[in-house]
Amino acid sequence: MTTTSRRSLLLAAPLLLPAVARAQGGGGFPNRPVTITVPFAAGGPTDVISRLVAEGMARDLGQPVVVENVTGAGGTIAAARVAQARPDGHTLLMHHIGHASAATLYRRLPYDVVEGFAPLGLASDAAMTLVARPDFPAADLAGFMAEIKRQGDKLNLAHSGLGAANHLCGMLLQHAAGAAATGVVFRGSAPAITDLMAGRVDIFCDQATNTVNFIRESRIKAFAVTLPDRVPGLDLPTTAEAGQPSLLMGTWHGLYAPRATPPEVQERLSAALRAALREERLRQRFADLVTEPASEERATPAYHRRFLAEEVARWRPIIQAANVYAD
Ligand code: ASP
Fold first, then answer.
1. CA-to-CA distance for 297 and 277, rounded, in angstroms?
2. All domains of the chain, ordered by start, with CATH?
3. Quick check: 120 and 253 in contact, CB under 8 A?
């Protein structure tokens, strides 16, 4: 190449860049792989949901979307990392109900749960299930509750850190049983359920996404779903049917960018989330895991922002009344 042609290429480069960027969609965004930060271990519900969403978003965005598991402290380590990330839309967070409860549970968070993020849309809803190790001495929910009351802290209750969905559900369970079990912290639902199947921990209240296959294969005992209605595809009574109407809790996941992410990038990411949730493959996998994809309305920034604020307000008095803090 002659010096002149090399120089003219260099001169042309800034002119070419916007065209390349446009081909990648969204005025230069994304111009490299996007990372979804997952606050829990690989193989658990947050991870599985994120990986399915990531596949569809990658197709829509024309860039790889990868998952990075950043575990610990009930999801607050991952959330802190994303709140402080460069707000260019390439670093995202998938978090669940625990993001809302953390606002009250953790009194010294290095970020603001609502103001520190740009919510992009909800991704999913799922039931929680009350489960136990395979040889747990109970045949139904009444027997399960009676055994928790009888054995108290001799029983090990698995959870994924203070404020994680399964921890919140475990608190409701202990409150309903009138006894306190011994908490055992895992980095996510996947390692917790492995230990439950092996009998190393006794009881667990975890997202149906994670438990459904093990329930179907009878590798754990299951007593009820913690929703007002039965869950199609799960042969379990509701807590109300089984005599514990106050034991109610569903969980949800949502996708976030750092707060200062440009509005057009937020919109682009949110549209990619909705595109992913529309894909047949994702819907089929979610259905297999008795997990509902968020509707088009719920998977929007406006809905998610409102919903998150409501969830923070809903959990605040519950946590204050329990007087449990994670600091
Ligand atoms: N869903 C779990 C929880 O209840 C964590 C995980 O996704 O592994 O917090």
1. 12
2. 32-126+251-322 (3.40.190.150), 127-225 (3.40.190.10)
3. no
Whole-number average pLDDT of the chain: 92
Is the separation of the CB atoms in 171 and 322 below 8 Å?
yes
Place 303 in a pLDDT band, splitting at 50, 70 and 90: very high
Distance between CA atoms of residues 46 and 70, nearest Å: 12
Q: Is the CB of 189 under 6 A from ligand 1?
A: yes
What separation in Å is there between the alpha carbon of 243 and the centre of ligand 1? 26
> What's the one-letter identity of residue 201?
V
How close is the Cα of 16 to the center of ligand 1, in Å? 45
The candidate with the shortest Cα–Cα distance to 101, out of 74, 121, 127, 81, is: 74
* pLDDT tens-digit map of 60-82: 999 999 999 999 999 999 999 99
Q: Is the CB of 98 under 6 A from ligand 1?
A: yes
Assess whether the C-beta atom of 207 lies below 6 angstroms from ligand 1. Answer: yes
Q: How confident is the model at residue 27 (pLDDT cuts 50, 70, 90)?
A: low
Instruction: Calculate how far, in angstroms, residue 40's C-alpha sits from the geometric centre of ligand 1.
Output: 6
Distance from the alpha carbon of residue 230 to the mean position of ligand 1, in angstroms: 21
> So what's the pLDDT on residue 322?
80
Write down the pLDDT at residue 13. Answer: 40
Integer CA distances (angstroms), 242 to 40, 227, 229, 256, in order = 31, 12, 12, 37
Out of 128, 206, 209, give the residue to mutate to test ligand 1, the one with the largest number of ligand atoms within 8 Å of its CB.
206
Please report which confidence band the pLDDT of residue 55 belongs to, taking 50, 70 and 90 as the band edges. very high
Give the residue from 300, 293, 295, 292 showing the smallest Cα distance to 120: 300
Q: Assign 193 to helix, strand or coil.
A: helix
Rounded to the nearest whole angstrom, what is the distance from the C-alpha of residue 186 to the centroid of ligand 1? 10
- The confidence score (pLDDT) of residue 22 equals 38
Confidence of residue 25 (pLDDT cuts 50, 70, 90): very low
